[in-house]
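Protein in question reproduced for absentees:

***
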Amino acid sequence: MEILAILIPVSLLLGGIGLAAFFWAMKTKQFDDPDGDAQRILTKDWDDRPKP
């Protein structure tokens, strides 16, 4: 039972850090172009070989 006194606050702290990172990503517009990748992969301009 004593381990729960350590594990519960640690898990809440890690969850809070993850939530803060998510809100930071939303604030800095990391998810600004959700349809770009979906449309980009359908174009014929994509090539298997990288350009030099």
Q: What stands out?
A: The first helix runs from residue 4 to 27. The chain has a mean pLDDT of 84. DSSP finds two helices and no strands in the chain.
